[in-house]
């Protein structure tokens, strides 16, 4: 069982960056919730925890300690940038880091950036290093993501729920790749056969649409899916 720790940046009395009617703490909550849901629905072999379920206030050291005490295998801190720039960047600690940490940054950075670019031109601000407390104090591979700027034109995308969902899912896929999680086997759609071919049976052809509708009704009553083409 791999242990994944998600840190929602800021929270409670610390809203993080605020601009354009948006609060960083709310956006980081949304992105992480989408990530958590996506992992839960699509992968197996892991447990995950979040630094705050709701709008609690936490210090940076408390976040790192929660992950360390639990024995997390990976730590991801999600943030939104400010300073009127544009684009995406990711961070690892600027002291000694393991090759695992570098690998985590590479896979997450690539997955998130390519997903964001499905929504428009996104600047790659690069894979960076900094002396951030949550990165310095955590004992496992740890990455912090800065997902666009709240106080620039980027805010348009940050107001788009589909974008936040996609960014959350990209975080989840990156973590799944890094940890080598197995995909959940999904129940096959009832009409589909394993090689992906689909065989349809036609049961009637009518020149009068009403006759077709009558037959479709009969079939539905008997439990068969019926469509009129
Ligand atoms: Zn932040």
Rounded to the nearest angstrom, the radius of gyration is 23 Å
Could you say which overall geometry the principal axes of the C-alpha atoms support? elongated
Q: Kindly report the spatial arrangement of strands forming the biggest sheet.
A: 5-1-6-9-7-8
Oligomer: single chain
| Assigned CATH architecture of the largest domain | 3-Layer(aba) Sandwich
Number of helices: 7
Distance between the termini: 49 Å
Helix and strand sequence: EEEHEEHEEHEHEHHEH
Bound ligands, each once: zinc ion
Describe the structure.
This protein is about 40% helix and about 20% strand. It has about 230 residues and is of the alpha/beta class. The chain has two domains: about 1-185, 3-Layer(aba) Sandwich (Aminopeptidase); about 185-229, no CATH class. The strands form three sheets. The chain has a six-stranded mixed beta sheet, sandwiched between helices. A hairpin with a 2-residue loop joins strand 2 (about 20) and strand 3 (about 20-25). The chain is elongated and about 75 Å long. The protein starts with a strand and ends in an 8-residue tail after the last helix. The model has no long low-confidence stretch (mean pLDDT about 90). The structure holds zinc ion. Zinc ion (ZN) binds near residues 9, 10, 16, 24 and 79.
Task: Describe how the helices and strands are arranged.
Elements lengths: L1 E7 L9 E2 L2 E2 H19 E2 L1 E5 L9 H11 L3 E8 L6 E6 L5 H18 L7 E7 L2 H5 L4 E8 L5 H4 L2 H19 L2 E2 L25 H13 L8
Parallel strand pairs: 1-5, 1-6, 6-9, 7-8
Antiparallel strand pairs: 2-3, 4-10, 7-9
Helix pairs in contact: 1-6, 3-6
Bound molecules: zinc ion (ZN).
Zinc ion (ZN) binds next to loops.
